[in-house]
Amino acid sequence: RRLPTAPPLAPGCVVAVQAAPRILSPDPGSTALLVPGLAPDEQEIPLSAEAADPTGRLDWFVDGRHVGATDGDDRLWWVPTVGEHEVLVQDADGRSDRVRFSVREG
After folding, report:
1. Of 102, 101, 98, whose CA–CA distance to 49 is shortest?
2. Can you tell me the distance from the alpha carbon of 47 to that of 86, in angstroms, rounded to the nearest whole number?
């Protein structure tokens, strides 16, 4: 049995599709340098994103591990470790963005 087809949208009516969050920091492909003699927890890296809903929850993952959650445009601070990393941010609807960057000793 076939289901009926939905009628066309009224003239001037648009479907609002929210965009996935977009990571603003860290920059894709960037390298963060750790300052010798300064503890990593004193050199935190900001994780920030632009979200369609500035008050909605964003979950943050680094290398597949959940590192925290923020409300929309808020920043999360991550204690860096030397190496290659992948940061992923995901909104409540499952939309996501990811970037790769590296951290090395300076």
Report:
1. 98
2. 12
Which pTM value belongs to this model? Answer: 0.81
Q: How far apart are CA 81 and CA 93, in angstroms?
A: 30
Q: pLDDT by residue (tens digit) across 65-92? A: 999 999 988 999 999 999 999 999 999 9
Query: 19: which residues sit within 8 A by CB, 6+ positions away?
Result: 52, 95
Query: Other C-beta atoms within 10 Å of 70: how many?
Result: 18
Q: Which residues are bridge partners to 99 per DSSP?
A: 87
Give, in degrees to the nearest 5, the angle at Cα 24 between 72 and 53.
25
| Weakly modelled stretches of the chain, pLDDT under 50 | none
